[in-house]
């Protein structure tokens, strides 16, 4: 039976796509917000990236130039989180997985409860109808001891459900973070990490094994190795893929060639996500539509991917 989502994809009906429930499981709140909301709230307009960047350093420079100090400090980050919930609700995202990096505790005088209260308030203001899966983030550039110090009180709250590692894949060896992942696993968190966006298929394998990952953010480099794809498929590790992000950061030359096709065909569980809506200018509904219009996947296949995210 053809779903409303499939019908909307085949008709190119963006409004109808937005009316269908979807899950965004790979989104960064600082650049994941709704452009119109931020412009109305702050008077600052952040136009999306209009070219292709070639490195994480270029991406960070772009964010600094376009956003400036808009999202700095506790008040600025609160606006960013609220804007991300607004974006989700306006685009029909019924489930979102995101949260605060552990270093964010430094903006709240070391109070994990204050961080949590800020997040709760952002959801209540921006997207009370959105199912929110709270995520705790680790930044690769931060020293291990600092991450360990900041993470402890956040973990003790017992409110976060997932752990993610993000930032420059080459900043520190992946094994540095293994003790933190053991603690998160013991606390029952779902384990994720950014890997295989800039790195290799072997990097994906190593991260999955060492950190005992349940899910991988990006992970598209796995397509270069049949063995790694087989490992992911057999273990059920999901890849949270961000097509427009991959295009705009030069990881994929054309949407028509996006590796999500080969990953899907290899039996790897995949979902479609936004990464940074403000930067890449593509909502989750538009991500699905772009893949369909580029002929990467059929409407039925993309519907199966959508439902995987909602599972």
- Numbering strands along the chain, what is their spatial order in the largest sheet? 1-2-3-4-5-6-7-8
Q: Order of SSEs, N→C?
A: HHEHHHEHEHEHEHEHEHHEHHH
Number of strands: 8
Beta-strand fraction estimate: 5-15%
- Give Rg in angstroms: 18 Å
* Uncertain ranges: none
- Mean pLDDT across the residues is 96
Supply the helix-strand structural class.
alpha/beta
Q: In this structure, how is the largest beta sheet organized?
A: 8 strands, parallel
**Mass-distribution shape:** globular
- The number of helices is 15
Helix coverage percent of residues?
40-55%
Explained architecture:
- With 311 residues, the chain is of the alpha/beta class.
- The protein contains 15 helices and 8 strands.
- The chain has helices at residues 4-11, 14-18, 35-42, 56-67, 73-90, 112-126, 144-156, 178-186, 201-211, 226-235, 243-248, 260-265, 277-280, 284-293, 299-310; strands at residues 22-24, 93-101, 131-139, 162-166, 190-195, 215-218, 238-241, 270-272.
- The radius of gyration is 18 Å and the shape is globular.
- The two termini are 19 Å apart.
